[in-house]
Every structure is written in C-alpha cells, then in structure tokens.
Amino acid sequence: MLESLFLPQSVAIIGASRTPGKVGHDILANLVKGGFKGTILPVNPAGGTMFDLPVLRSLREFDGEIEQVIVVVPKDRVLEAVKDAMAKKAGAVVLISSGFKETGKAGRRLEEEVAKICKSHGARLLGPNCLGLLNTQNNLNASFAGSMPARGKIAIFSQSGALCTSMLDLAEGRRLGISKLISIGNKADINENDLLSYLADDKQTTVVTGYLENIISGDTFIKTAEEACMKKPVVLLKSGTTAAGQKAAASHTGVLAGTDTAYGAAFKRSGVIRADTFEALFDYATALSMQPLPKGNRVLIITNAGGPGTMAADAVEHCGMRVADLASNTATALRDKLPEGVSIGNPVDVLGDAPPERYREVLRTAQNDDSVDAIIIILTPQVMSNPKETARAIAMEIDGSKPVLASFMGGKDVMPGRLELTAAGLPDYESPERAVGALKVMHEYETWLHRPPRMVTRFRVNRRRVERIITRSRRFNILQLNEVKSKKILQSYGFNVPDGRLVTDAEEAVEQARRTGFPVAMKIVSPDIVHKSDMGGVKLNLTTAQQVRDGFDLMMIRILQQVPSAIIEGIYVEKMVDPGLEVIIGVSRDPQFGPMLMFGLGGIFVEVMKDVTFHLAPITQDEAIHMLKSTRSYNILKGKRGQKGVDIVGIANGLQRISQLTTDFPQIIELDINPFIVGETGTDPVVADGRMTLLSADKRIII
C-alpha cells in the first residue's frame, strides 16, 4: 500500500533550504504554495523559520510520528536522515538525493543499505535520484517540478526526472489535467510494478502513462500490467531500443536494458499500449482519457478540404482500419440536408465554405449510423472558416456513443478552435495522421480487452528422454547441441523428423540410405561448423549408392581442407523431405521475460526484409496464428492469385510445441528450426534442420 506516499497527513523535508533555486527550497515552496493542507515540517540545522513555518534543527526534535519524509541532503548524510525518519515511524521516504547506483559499486552498496533499512521498518522508498511526486487530489507537490498542474485523469510515472518536468509542461500546453506524477529514479524499492498496481485502482486516474528505461522483474511486470490494463489503458514509452540507447540507459540508471524486441512482446502480451515517441505518448493518452473506445474499425472522415481528407483515408487503411461505407439512409439524409456539391461519400467533404452548422449536421447524422464506429473531423483555415464556433458546434453535438477525434490543421488561425475543443474534452491533433494513430491504438486496446480467454495447449510429450539428453550434454559441457541431438529432442515433443542416422564412413552411409530409402540428404556434423552449406557440408537429393559414397568422401575431403582443425563427429544421412514452403520457427530466452518465440519465412524474407514476428511463451493457438498474420508475408502462407496456401495450423502447432519445450526446460536458451518445411493443409510440417544452445551447468551463457 502506498497511502503514506500519496495521501500523507504530515510531511517532513530533511534538507529544506532558504535559498531559491536549491532543491530543498523548491520542494518546500511547492508544498506550501501548492496548497497541501497537512502538517509540513522543514528540517535544517540552522533552525529559524521558512515560509512562516518553524524549522527543526533535526527531525529528532519533533515529538510525534511523521508519515512521509523527503530527504534532500548530500549522500554522506542520507543514512542518518533515513534512520531519523524510521525513528519517527515514517511510512514513506522520498529520497531525492543522487550519487547512488548510477555512479558505481560504492553508490550501489549505499543504495542497498538505505533500501534495507526502510524495508526492515515497513516503510516504502521512492528513489533515490528522483524528482519526487505530486498528487492533485490533495494538492501534494512533493517535488521540485513546476507549479501544481490542473486536476485531471492522466497519471504519469517516469524513470527520468527531467522527462517528468517535460511531461508536465507538455500537459499544461495541451490543457490536460493530471491526477498524479511520480519520478521513480533508481527504483531501489518502489518500481513500475508497484505503481501500476496502485494506479489501476486509483479512482482519480483513467489512463496511466509512463517512461521506462528498464523493467525490474519481467514476470511480475507482465502479470501486474495485464491486471492493470483490464481496468484502464496503460501507455508506456520505452527507451533503449538501440545499442547506443541501451548503453546510455545503463550509464544513467546503473542497470542493463533488456532487448527491445522482448519489451515489445511483453507489452503486447500484457495489453500495454506502446508509444514510440514522446508526442505519441500524449497523443494516445489524450484520446483514451477523453473519448470512449470504438466498437469496431470503421471510420468516418468529415473534412472541409479534399487533400487532408485523402490523407486521413490513406492513414486509416494503412494502419489496418477501414474507411466506413455509409448506410444508404445516412447518405440520403445528408443529401437532403446539405447543399449541392457536398461529397456524400467517405470522406464527407463539407466544402471550404462550411459553416459550423454544416459540420454539426453531418456529425449528428453520422453518430446515428450503425456502420460507423469512429469519427475524425478535419478543419483547415479558409477565409470563411470559423474554427472557434465550429469547435463549439461539434462539442454541443457529440453524444458520447462513439469516439470523435479532431484535426484542426494550421497555426494561429485555428488556435481558438483548438482551445475550445480541449476545453470540451475533445482530443485535437495537428495532422490527420496523428489523429488516426491515436484512434488505431484505441481500437487495438478495445480488441485486446475482448480477446478470447488464454487456453494454452499441453501436448503429450516424452520429457524423460529430453531430460536425459540435456542433463548428459551439460554434464560434459556440450552446450551447442548438434542437429542429431536437437532433432531427437524435437521428435520427443511431437515434431515430424525425417528418418536419419549419424554415420562415420561411406559404407555406413550407403547402408543408412538403403534403409531409409532414396533419395537422401547428407550433412556434416561438427561443433566447429555452424553454416554447413557455406562450407560444402550439405548434399541433397542423392539417389544412388554410388552418389552417397562419392558424396561422403568428397564432403570429408573438402571440409578438412577448409577447416583442418574442425572436430568431425560424422555425417548425418536422412530421408529427403518432400518440397514445401520453408519457414523458420525458434526461441531465444530473454533474461527478463523468458522464452521469446520467433516466426518468419525463409530466405530473403528473414535475411533481407527482416519479416519476422515475436511472442512470449507460453503461447495459445490463437496467439500463434496471430503471429503469422502479423507478418507482411502472411498472404504467401494463405495462398493468393491461384497459389495454394500452406498448413497454417501446422505452423501454429509447431510454435506451441517449442513454447512448451522451452517452458519445460529453461536450460534451453536458444532454439532454431530452420528450415521448417510446410506443405498444404492436412500435411504434417517437417523439421529439416535444427539446433539448440544450452545454459551451462554453472548458469553461464556461452554462445
């Protein structure tokens, strides 16, 4: 519980200052000027008064308990200050001071000691290295940010204090009210999971937004975020998406950032709306806090100019929504009410001379059309336009049955209208594309809320056989499993693996080929050779015994010429796989979020186009099929222009099986089935090649 943090009856500031511009002065000033009605206790060794409040020389002078203590002193005095706070039964400590784990090992040790002291006394710690917090509900501005913002429905938390002040400034510029703002700093105790849990039940908050550089506990985050998103939208901006960004995040917060792909998969699983930019964070939060969610993806566009209407229509289609087809009675009603020349289609072009009433008439009619799920209204400043009165007319007509977003395009001429829209609780954007972007995430969130229940299939498998292979391999420190062992494991989990055997001489190869039946494939097996084809270590479609003998001898000669030091375990001879579509499925284990599944088509699609998709394990069949649909190459799987499609359910089952495998065996840190040969519907996909990497016995990842 965080009541002592957000709803304290008394607050002490250890390190209060009389000097304007110092953090200790600005926090005290914000508390007093913000209108906080509780007890405020400045603490400074000089004593005296500040803002007409008596100043304690030490918190120990206070006779009684204190609910929240803000610490703004140099780091060498922090321990003493925190111990004084614990002596007064503080329920929350806000540690503003810096110089902790972001500075190195010594700072980390000090931070851990402070956190340990607070925990042992049952107190919650915010920070260190933070800006503080504010709560407009009780006029608590326990921060050195600007003045108290207007009350509103959006809560903000941020790992960066500087971004907190930027967010406040941007919110004020957009006339957005704030419910709470929290700077979490180094997250020695209170972190994003605590805040998501608290804000999910906060009656003053309808949308939660945040900026993160890392996540403390991946499993806890997914569970907590999913529970929060079931109650209200959560919009997060995650930095550290590039190698340079991850390095900057580590130096700033003293922690390593997780991979961006894993964060994207975690957000998708838990329902979090991800903002890619600072502007998008507020674009999304504005719409979600002001308008109802759309019941579908059909969008009507109302505009007074053809070009912007076309821009909006393009944006709608590009993001996967639909430009709505108006019902026939709607079109008839609009023709009767609007002047000749108005385009009764979608976009509805009300013409450049449109008065406020014309916008209002179209909006009224569109809101009663069941074939419309959302409405975007565009206004460009013409000589005869009246943005302010048009905004008022729109606001008066809105009935709240479906979301309405506006884009009053321009600068000073449309500003009066934009202010009217904001005052009326209507989101307004500088461009139609940004309005459509906000509407898109609203639709995606609505879809997520009504997703089917997660039912993870458990297949019948041979776990005991897999356990033996993995245990023995790790015992001998064999962490790169070759194709032979990998296929045995995959076969144990129900995959279709061609009949094959590892051989060590040409005659054994011929014997195996005859046993399985021609044609066969031959592949070199060596821990020193990963890309077998590049080294001449693969031969396909061998149809006679002589081809097998010659192929064996030639392969051994060429491999040893190119890689003389390579350890050759033998050559794997297996039945040739029937032709089909080559896809790749695999798993990599993220240190924060665990097994992360990957799917993509083979060849140019993965190597050049990077057309791959990811999802966290465990995965349901619906989620697996959605993975396939989210690729640009899905039409190839489905079949198009006379081409037959492939067994999509078979691929989905393969993803579910490797999901179960890597969930059952966390020792597997990487798995690739490449290629996974998929045929027409009703056929069984085949593992043509595979490899795995294991975690070492001492839990070191060795690649």
Note down, in words, how this protein is organized.
The protein is built from 24 helices and 30 strands. By secondary structure, it is an alpha/beta fold. The protein has five domains: 1-132, Rossmann fold; 149-290, 3-Layer(aba) Sandwich (Rossmann fold), CATH 3.40.50.261; 299-449, Succinyl-CoA synthetase domains (Rossmann fold), CATH 3.40.50; 452-496 and 579-703, 2-Layer Sandwich (D-amino Acid Aminotransferase, Chain A, domain 1), CATH 3.30.470; 499-576, Dna Ligase, domain 1. It has a seven-stranded mixed beta sheet, sandwiched between helices. Strands 20, 25, 26, 27, 28, 29 and 30 form a seven-stranded antiparallel beta sheet that branches. A five-stranded parallel beta sheet has the order 2-1-5-6-7, sandwiched between helices. Strand 8 (132-135) and strand 9 (140-143) form a beta hairpin. The longest helix is centred in the middle third of the chain and has 18 residues, at 432-449. Mean pLDDT is 92; it is low at 249-258.
Report a brief summary of the structure:
Helices cover 38% and strands 21% of the residues. It has 703 residues and is of the alpha/beta class.
